[in-house]
Records
---
Amino acid sequence: MKLIYLLIVLAPLFGAAVAGLAGGAIGRANAHRLTILAVAVSAGLSLWVLYQHVSGTATSFNETIYTWAMVGDLRLEVGFLVDRLTAVMMVVVTTVSLAVHVYTVGYMHDDPGYQRFFSYINLFTFAMLMLVMANNFLQLFFGWEAVGLVSYLLIGFWYKKESAIFANLKAFLVNRVGDFGFLLGIAAVLFYYNSLDYVEVFGAARAAPELTMSIFGTEALVVTVACLLLFIGAMGKSAQVPLHVWLPDSMEGPTPISALIHAATMVTAGIYLVARMSPLFEFSETALTVVLVLGAITALFMGLVGLVQHDIKRVIAYSTLSQLGYMFVALGASAYAAGVFHLMTHAFFKALLFLGAGAIIVALHHEQDMRRMGNLRRYLPITHITMLLGTLALVGTPLFSGYYSKDAIIEAVHLSDRAGAGFAYVAVLLGVFITSLYSFRLYFLVFWGEERIDPHAREHMSHLPRYVLPVMQWPLILLAIPSVVIGYFTIAPMLFGGFFGEAIFVAPANDVLALLSEKFHGSFAFALHAAVNPAFWLAVAGAIVAWFFFNFRPSLLPMVNARLKPVIEVLENKYGFDVLYNQGFAGGGRLLGRALWRVGDQGLIDGLIVNGTARTIGRLAGLLRGAQSGYLYHYAFAMILGLLLLLSVFVANWQGWF
Amino acid sequence: MFEGLPLLSLLVWLPVLGGVAVLLTGAQNAERARWFSLGIAVVVFLLSLALWQGFETGEAGMQWVERNAWIAAFDIYYHLGVDGISMPLVVLTAFSTLLVVIAAWEVVRYKPAQYLAAFLIMEGIMIGVFSALDAILFYVFFEAMLIPMFLIIGIWGGPNRIYATVKFFLYTFLGSVMMLIALIYLRIQAGSFGITDFYGLALPLGTQVMIFLALLAAFAVKVPMFPVHTWLPDAHVEAPTGGSVILAAITLKIGGYGFLRFSLPITPDASLALDWLLIGLSLIAVVYIGLVAMVQEDLKKLIAYSSIAHMGFVTLGFFLVFRIIAAGGGENGALLALEGGMVQMISHGFISAAMFLSVGVLYDRMHTRMISDFGGVATRMPVFAGLFVLFAMANAGLPGTSGFVGEFMVILASFQAGFWYAAVAALTLILGAAYSLWMIKRVVYGEVKNDQVEALEDINRRELLLLGSLAVIILFFGVFPAPLIAVMEPSLAALLQIMVPTL
C-alpha cells in the first residue's frame, strides 16, 4: 500500500516538475498529456483506495515515509495516515483536479503560459494530497503552506495584471495571519502533548482533557487554546470572517483554479482540519462554539454580499464563502460528518458552477460582467443545462446532492444544544433564502432575459477553435452527475452509517447526528420531508423573488434598489473590511516601519549615537590636540599627575579600600 | 583517505597562499587569475567536503585536531579543530567563496585579480575563525578578517563606500577590543589560552557578567543585534555583490558562532542572568527590523534588514534555552531551540547568498538597486523570476525550503518558554512574507516598467549554475534537514550540559 500512496502523491509532483522545468522542450500538447495522465493516475488509484475502504478490504494505514529530523528524542516525520476521511478527501481532490485539468486544455488554449499553468495545477494536486494524507502536524503545515504557495502563484498567474498581483499578495498575507495562529497551535500541541504525530497527540489529549495552562492572566484548558489557535489557521485558509477578504479577490486568477482551489479543494482544508482534529475539538466546548458562531456569521453575511456583485465569478466566490460557513456550522455543532459531506457535494457542484462560468467567460472573450450577458441559453445549451443542475444542487432542491448535505446541517444545528446554536440555526435558515436568491439572480441574468452581449464578444464566439467548447463541456457533464446524485446515494452511509469510523471522534453527549438518524428513514423519505421543512420553502421563495425581479419584471428593480440604497451600499463596501485592512493594517504597518526606520535607525542610533559619537570624538581629539602644546613642563606636569593617580590606586588597594 | 593530512591547516592556508599567488601572478592577466582562483576555490571546497565526509557524526568533541606551540613564551598554541557546530560553517564558507569566485567572472572588471585574491584570503581567515581552538589564534583571525572586507568594500564598493567602511570598521573593532581584554583575563584564570579550557572555570557571577558583556560587544556587532546593527545596511549597500554574499552568508554567522563557542559555555551563569536582554533584543530584531525591512526602497537594504531579522531567530534560539528548561520544556525543548538557531544560521547562509546574488544579477544589467526602477522583470527574465520568487519564498520561511526549518524549530521551542515569546517570534510569518513578497510584487511582477527593463536579458549559464545550485540546496535542506541536524546535535547537547549542568 505504501507504494501506492507514494505513487498517488508523487505522480503529480513529477508531472509538475517536468512541465515546469522542461515545459518549453516538451511542448504544449505533451505538457497537458503528461500532467493529465499524472492526475488520472492519482485519481484512479484514489478511487481504488476508497473502494477498498468502502468494501472493507483495507484498514486505515498509518506509516512513516521518512524521518525529517530527529531532535533529542523528538521525531519529526513525513508520513501518511489514510483512513476513510482521508480516502474521501483524496477522491474529491483528485477527481475535481482531473476535471479541471481537462477543462484547462480549452480554457487556456490561447495562453502563452500554458505549460506553466499545467505545472502549477499538478503541483497543487501534490500539495493538497500531502495535506490531506499527513499523519502529523509538520507535514500538515507543509501541505498547508504549499497549497498557499500554489494559490499565490495561480492567483497571480497573469502577473502583468495589477489587480492580480495585488490579489495574490493579499491572499498570501491574509493566509499568513491565519498561519500565525496555526503555527502557535502546533507549538502548543507539541509542548503539552509532546508529539506532532496525530495518533499520539489525540491519545495524550484524551488522557488529560483537563490539562490547563495560564494565558492572558487566567487558567484555560490547553485543548481550548490549541483548538482556537489551530482554528485561526482554518479561518485563513477557509476564508471565514474576518479573514475572508482574500477569497473574492482571488477571482483575479484564471477560472479553472477558481474552481479547483478556491471552491472545491484548498479552501476546504480548514473544514478538513477541524474534522481531522475532532478528537481535540470534542474536548473543548468553547472552541466548538467559536467555530459554530463564526461559521454562521460567514454563512449569512457573505451570502448577502453575493447579492450585489456584478462579476459572475465574484457571485460564486461569495457563495463559496457562505457555503464554507455552513460547513463550519456543521463542525461547530459536532456534526463533523455532515460538514465533510457538504464539503464533498459542494466540491462537485461548486466546481461545476465555476467551470460553467469559465465556459461563458471564454465564449464571451473574457467578459465577466453579468450586465453584459443575458439570454445565453441560446448559445451555450450544455453550459446552461449543467449550470442549472449545479444551481439546483446549490440551493438545495430535494433529491439533489446539495439538498441532503445542507439539510443535514440545518437539522443538526436545530438539534444541537450548544451555546450559539439558536443563532446559527436562524442564520443558516435565512442563508437558504439568500443562497437561492443570489443563485437564481445569476441564473436569470446570464441565461434568460434580453441579450446584452457586447458585439465583439458575439463575434469572438463564432471564431473559437472547434475543440475549445467541447473540451470544456465534458468536465461540466462529468461534474453534473455527482452534483445531482451523490447525495442521494451516500447520505445514509456517510452520516448515519458510521462510515468514518475511528477517523472522526464525537463525544456521545454531543452526537447530534445520532439524534438525527432516528428521524432518518432513507434518502427518498428524507427528500419528501422537504415539504414540511422551512428551509425548502425559503429556497422556493428565494427562487421566486429572483425570477420576479430578474426575469419577469426587471423594470421594477431600480425602484427596489433605490429603496434599499443604504443597505446596498454597506454590502457593496463589503462591510468595510477591505478599507480597514488596506488602510489600517497594511498602511499602518508601512507607516510604523517608516517611522521606526527614520526615527529609530536613522535618527537615534545613527544620528545621535554613531555619528554623534564620531563627532564627539572629533571634538575630543581637538581638545587633545590642544594638550600637545610642545612645552616640556606641560608634559612633565601631566606625568606627575598621572603617577600620583596610579600611586593612589595602589595605596587604596593595599589599604583594602576597594 | 585524508586521515593523515592536516586538513584544517590546508583549508586555512591553501586559500590564503592561493590568494597571494593570484596577487603575484594574475595582476597582468585577468583570465589566468580567474581560472587559478576558481581552481583554488574548487579544491578548497572539495577539501571541506572531505572534512565533512571524514567527520564522525555521533561525536561531540573536537575532531581533526591540530596543536603545535606557536608563541611558547605566552602559552599560545596553533590549535585547530572542528566539532558539529563549526564543521558546517567551514563547509558553508568554502561553498560561499566558490560562489563568489564564479559570480565575479565577467562582472568584476576593475582589478579582478586583487578582487579574487581578497576573497580567497578572506576565506582562509574565516575558516581559521571557525576552527581556531586557541583564544589568541581566534582573536588574530577574528581581527584579520576585517582587513580584506575593509578592502573589498573600500575598493570595489559604491559611491558612499568610505562612510560605510569606516562605520563597519569602527563598529566591529570597538567590539573586538573588549573581547581581547576578556580573553586575557580568562587566560589568567585558566592558565591556558585553550578555548575549551575556559569552559570549566567557576567564575563568580559578577566576573561572568563583565566577561559576558565584553564578549557581547564583539559578537552582537557581528550578528548584528539591535541596536548595533546599523552598520550592516550601509555596508551591504556599498559592498560589491561578492562582498555582500560573504558578509551575509559568513561574517554574520561568526557572531552566532561566538555565542556558542564562548559566551554560553564560558559564562553560563551570566547568560542566564542576562538572557532577558538577549531575548528582548532578538525579539526586537524580529519585529522592529521586520517592519523597517518592509519600507526599504533599496533592494540591498531590504535584504540586509531581513538578514538582521532572520539572525534574530539565531540569538533567540540560543538564549531561550534557560527559560525553556525553567518552564519544563526539558532537554528536547532546549535542543530544539539551540539546533533551530544553528540551522537558521546555515540556512540563512544559503538564502541570503541567493538573494544577494539575485540582486547582483539585476544590478549588473540595470546598474540600479532601487525597487522603484524595476517592475515586470518576469516578462523579460522568466527563469530568473522563477528562481527569485523561490528565494523570496525561502526568505519568508516557506515549508519545503531551508528557511522554514530553523524558524519552525525556534518558534516551537519558544512556545515552551512561554506563549508570548512564540507569539512575538511567529509574527515573522506575516512580516517576512510582507517584506519579501511585496518586494517581489514590485520588482518581478507587473507590466514592464521602462525601456531598461524591456532590454533585460535572462540569466546566462553561469548565473543559472550559481542560482540553480543554491535553489537545489535550499530545497534539499527544506525537505530533508536530518543530516544537518544529526551533525550538530552531539556538540550542541554537550554544550547544553555545560550551560545547564543540572539537566
Note: The two ends of chain B are 39 Å apart (CA to CA).
---
Amino acid sequence: MAAEKKEKIIKISSVNQDRIIFLLLFLVIAIPMIVPLGLPVPISSTTSKFYDTVEGIQEGATVLWCTSMGFSIWYNTGPGEIATFRHIFRLVRERHIKFIVFAEGAEDAAIDRRIIAEHCDTSGLTYGEDYVDLGWIPGGEAALAGVVTDFQSTVETDYKGTPISQIPMLKDIKSGEEIDVFGFSSGSMIDRFMRQWAPFRKPILLNMIAIGVPLCMPYIEKGMVTAYINGQRGGAEYEKILGQLGMGSSFIDAQSMVHLYIIIMIIVVAVWSINRRKKGI
Amino acid sequence: MFVVGRRFELIVFVVICLTMYFFIERAKRGKVPEIRPLPALQALDEGVGRAVELGSSVHFTTGVSGLADAFAPQTIAGLAIMNKVAKVCGEYAIPMRYTACRSYMIPIAEDMIRSGYAFGGRPEMYSDDMVVYVGEAQTAFQAAVVSYLMDEKPAVNFMFGGVQAEAIQTLGAAAVAGCMQFAGTARMFYFPFILCLCDYSLIGEELFAAAAAVSGENIQLGTIRGQDVSKFLVLALLILGIILTTAGTALFKRLVGW
Amino acid sequence: MSVLRRREIAILFYVVPMLFLVFEYFTGIGSESSSALIGWAIILSTFTYLIGGFAIFRLHILNIAKQKGEWPYSVILITSFALFLGLAYTYQPGYKWVLENVYTPLTIIMFGFVGFYAATALFRGARIRNFNAGLLIICAIFLMLYNAPIGEAMWPGFKTIGGWLKDVPNTGVMRAVTIGVAIGILATFVRALLGLETSYLGGK
C-alpha cells in the first residue's frame, strides 16, 4: 500500500509537474513583494565603479545616452536606467553637463519620456540648452553609426519635431568627437554599440540586463566598457548609493528568493536523477 | 593612403577573405571537405515520421532575427535547413507551418517551402497558408507561436536561426505541449535552453555545418572549411601575441596599432 | 523592365555599397558618401516598417473577408491598431494611457512567461548525466548566487567564485564566440562578393 502510494506520488504527470513549478514560482515572487523581507543588498564593486564614473564627469561635458531595452525588460534594466538618469540630471544642474538622450527602438522613446517626466527633477533646467530628447532614431546599427559620423544629417529633429538647428546645445555636435561620455542600456548583444562607439575611445557606460553581462565580458574586461550596471541587482545597489530607493530595491527580495528556489529545484532534480541512476531506473 | 591603426586589420581581413575564397574555389573544383555526421540532421526523418504516426503537423521557425542584422548568417542557415525539412515533409505528405517575424521573410520562406515540397514529390501540398506572418514585434511573435503550439500541438517543433528571447518561450511551450524538438543557433545566450529542452540540437558552428550539409552545395562546404582554417589563423595570431607580449616586447601592440 | 529584374542588378545593389563602406573604413576616403549611404540605410529601414504594417493589414483583412480561422481576432487587431494610431495623433493623454496601462503590462507579461518556461527548462534538463553536466550545474549555482544579493549575504565565497567564473572562463569563451561570429560574417561577405549569397533573393 505504501509502495503503491509512493509509486503514485512519483508518477505526477508532466503537465501537473509544470503547474506545481509555476505555482511555487509565483508564490516565491509574490510573497516577498507583498511582505518585504529586508534582505541585505551589499554594494558591488561594479556598481560603485559605475557611480564613480558618472560622478567623475567633468564640468560642461556632453553625455550621449541611447536607450535600447524595450518594455519587456523594464523591471530588469529599468531601475538602473532611472537611477542613471537621476544621477546625470543632478550633474546637469550642478556641473552644467549637456545630456542628449535618444532611443534605438520605438518603445524606448516612450521609456525615455516616461523616465524624464516621472522620475527626474528637471526644475530649473532648460530643455534644449541643458538636455534634449531626440526620440526614436530608426535604423539599428546604421542609426548608431550615423549619430557618431554625421550627427547633423542623421538627426534632423528632436522628439517634438523641433529642427536641431533650433536647439542650442546641438549646434556644435557634428560627430562622436564632440561627445565626452557615451552610455546605453541594452537587453541583448552590445557588439553594434562597440563597433560604432568604441573607436572614439571615450568612456562608455552600460546598463545591461543581468543575463547579458557574461556576454559583454570581453568588452568590459578590456576596458572598452568603462563601467556597467548588472541588471536589477545593480539598479537596486545604484538606488542605495544615490539614497533614492525605487523599483529595484522593492523587487530585490523577490529576486533573491527566486534564485534560491531555482537552486533548490536544481539540487532536488539532480539528487533525484542520481538516485534513479543508482537504482538502475 | 590607409587609416592609421587599421592597416594590420586590413591585412588580417584580406588574408581571411582570400582563405575563404581559396577553399570555396577548391570546393567548386571538386575537393569537397567532409563534415562529421550531425545527429540532428540524421534524425530529421525520425522527427517528421513522428508527425506521420500522430497524424499531426510540423512547425518551423527561424526566430525573430532576419536578414538585416548581425544574425543574418544564422537565419540563412536556418532557411537552408527549412528547405530540407520541407522536402522531407513533402516525401511524407505532412503539412508544415513556418512562423515569420519579418515581413521580407514571407516571400523567401514561401519559395523555400514550395521548392522543398516540389523536391519531395508533392508540389500540390504547398499552400501560402503555410507561411504565417505575425508582425514585427517579438512579443507578438512569442504570443502567436506559443498559442499555436499549445492549441495545435504539432508533432515536431523546429527552431533554427539567430533566435532571441522568444526561443525560451517557444521551446518551453513546445515542451509543455509534448512536441519533439529540434533547435539550433550560434547565439550562446540560448544554448542552455536548447540543450535542456530539445531532443536534438545544433549549437554554434554546427548550425552552419548542418546548413552546408543539407544544401549539398560544394560552395557551402568549402566556406565551412575556409572558416575553420581562418579560425586556426586567428589562433596562431593569438598565440604569437601571447608569446611576444609575455616576452615583454611591445612589437605585437605596435603591429596591431599600425 | 526585364533588365531591372535580373538577379545581377540586385546583387550589384547588395555588393557595391558593401565594398564602398569597407573601402572607406580602411582608407578614410569618401567619408561623406559613406555617411550618406548610412543615412539611406536608415531611411530604407524605416520603409521596412511600412512594409510590415502593410503585410499585417493585408493578412488580417483577407482573414476577415474570407472569415478564415480566428477572424474575430483580426477585427480586434485592426480596430486596436486604428484606435492606437488615432489616439497618437489626436489625443495624447489617451495614447499615453493605452501605452502605460495596456501595451506595457501585456508586453511585460509576455516576457514574464520566460521566467516560468526557464524554470520548466531547468526542471527538465538539470539532470547530472555525466561529469560535464554536473560541473555545469555547479557553475550555474555559483553564478546565480553571485547575481543574487542573498548569495553574498550567505557566504562571501559565492561572490568570489561566481565572479571568477564570470571574469575568467566565461570571458575566454565569449571572446572565442565573438571571433567565430566575426569570421562567419566575413564568410557571408566573401560569398556575397562572389555573388554566391543569394538567399535574400528568395529560393534557389
Note: The mean pLDDT of chain B is 90.
